[in-house]
Write a structure and sequence with these properties.
By secondary structure, the chain is mainly α. The chain contains 23 helices and 2 strands.
Length: 500
């Protein structure tokens, strides 16, 4: 009689099964990322509508703070929906998450502005962003695990890399919809009400995603373990399995040694590249969006390539290699972007606009997104292999969302604050009052040094290279299907340095 593992791998490897699983999981996840990133991409545009101020920098900081709030609660969503996913099932958890995300996004599109309802507008907006963050905290883990627990050993990096494309594709879709609607409506109509349309479109997209996901079944690996009584049956057993012993240490190690570095490379290479062009270099939104759309379109296939490569040479060389290369090359890349932006200055030396060399800057952004594909393409496979099936939803989601929600999500806010700290006469981060960074602006540029914010991404990426390289074991050869046969399910917790 064939072993459960062999039978499971045969079932997972069926040609008709995997494409449907990937397509169904990816479609819903793309929509969730689209919903979540709409506000993020429109932050500079929406800030004066919901956070009016005599100081444009203060309004923008408030807008970015609410942008960051959606990321800040993602780890809490990971805990809430991690429990549902590990106790009830993977399918049920991400049916709930997409419903919450869709409802919150549509409500943002219906929300009156500060001029219409005063202080209630930013308060309600913040609440809706928190709901979006909670939903996303449960979505990603469910989708990544759903694909991974259908995939055969030896191809997990390849198959889960398709899920890894969804965040970037969701951003691409949001960029495309925003660009088309802004061009179609014109600036005044878009400012009056046209900005609501991309949010309201979410209602149709979420309905389609729910229709697809209702047809999904539970993953065969989780279903087998549940039949054998080897999964958590209630909150107490789930908490005991998830947070006792070495579990918290493993999550912390995965966070510091992998997902933190992955996160800053992801957000620096895509979101911050866009904000760098529009906020700091004052590039008009049309060429800036075109640059990002071209770079994303040309780089996205590399998610799958690096997922496949990680099946061959390992997760660590690809992920940590991407972090290292990014940290070493960010400064010259952004110097080259500034050199090709053809900046326009006023008499006081402030940047007032840019006429960018689109092909050159698109190539420079493309290089950064290649780094994104290196660090992000294999990360789902690594996290799935690092934690056992019974608590995988929770254990995977928490370090992922602390990394991407906190280390990555706050990057634009931290970047802006670091640049502001180099403005002559200011010399400190306004809301922290900690650092005098005027030495990073030797030219005395009145807008500050736009490269100063790179410090954060570089330091965090190097931290993950060192910690992950020294303390995290390679996971690509772990056979997760053997768990259903009763083989040991402990994660690869102790590298050689910890043994003995």
């Amino acid at each position: 009689m064939a072993t459960v593992a062999a039978a499971g791998e045969r079932e997972a490897a069926r040609g008709w099964n995997i494409p449907f699983v990937i397509a169904a999981s990816s479609a819903g996840t793309i929509i969730e990322w689209y919903d979540f990133y709409l506000y993020a991409l429109l932050t500079p545009f929406l800030a004066p509508l919901f956070f009016p101020s005599d100081n444009p920098t203060a309004s923008l900081l408030a807008g970015f703070a609410v942008y960051g709030a959606g990321f800040a609660v993602r780890p809490f969503g990971a805990v809430v929906f991690g429990r549902i996913g590990d106790v009830v099932g993977r399918k049920y958890a991400f049916l709930v998450t997409i419903t919450i995300m869709g409802a919150a996004t549509v409500l943002v599109g219906l929300l009156p502005t500060y001029q219409q309802i005063g202080i209630l507008a930013p308060l309600i907006l913040t609440l809706l962003r928190l709901l979006q963050g909670l939903a996303l905290g449960g979505e990603y883990g469910g989708a990544a695990i759903y694909v991974a627990e259908h995939a055969p050993d030896g191809k997990r990096g390849l198959y889960t890399s398709w899920i890894q494309t969804t965040a970037t594709v969701g951003m691409f879709a949001a960029l495309g919809v925003i660009l088309l609607t802004r061009l179609g409506f014109g600036d005044q109509v878009y400012r009056d009400w046209g900005w609501r349309v991309p949010f309201l479109l979410s209602a149709i997209l979420v309905f389609l995603a729910l229709y697809i996901r209702v047809r999904l079944q539970e993953t065969p690996l989780f279903a087998r373990l549940k039949e054998r009584g080897r999964t958590a049956t209630n909150t107490a057993s789930w908490a005991r399995q998830s947070f006792t012993g070495s579990r918290l240490g493993l999550m912390l190690l995965a966070l510091i040694g992998m997902t933190a570095g992955q996160a800053v490379v992801w957000y620096q290479g895509q979101f911050q590249a866009l904000f760098f062009l529009t906020v700091f270099l004052k590039t008009p939104y049309v060429p800036a969006y075109v640059i990002l759309l071209v770079a994303i379109a040309l780089a996205t296939p590399f998610f799958v390539f690096f997922g496949w490569l990680s099946d061959k040479i390992g997760r660590k060389p690809v992920i940590l290699g991407g972090c290292l290369i990014a940290a070493v090359t960010y400064v010259p890349i952004y110097q080259a972007i500034m050199a090709n932006a053809n900046l326009v200055y006023d008499q006081a030396g402030k940047i007032t606009g840019a006429n960018p060399n689109i092909p050159v800057i698109a190539a420079l952004v493309w290089i950064q997104i290649i780094y994104v594909t290196m660090v992000y393409g294999p990360i789902a496979a690594f996290l799935v292999e690092y934690f056992p099936t019974a608590i995988r939803y929770t254990s995977l989601s928490i370090p992922y969302h602390f990394g991407n929600g906190w280390f990555g999500g706050w990057l634009p806010t931290i970047y802006l604050a670091l640049v502001a700290a180099t403005i002559p006469g200011q010399g400190y981060i306004p809301f922290l009052g900690l650092f005098d960074l005027r030495g990073l602006n030797p030219s005395g540029a009145p807008d500050g040094n736009p490269l100063a914010g790179l410090i954060y991404a570089i330091v965090v990426a190097l931290m993950s290279v060192i910690v992950g390289g020294l303390l995290i074991p390679e996971t690509k050869d772990r056979r997760i299907w053997e768990e259903a046969e009763g083989a040991p399910t402990e994660p690869l917790a102790r590298p050689a340095a910890f043994s003995g």
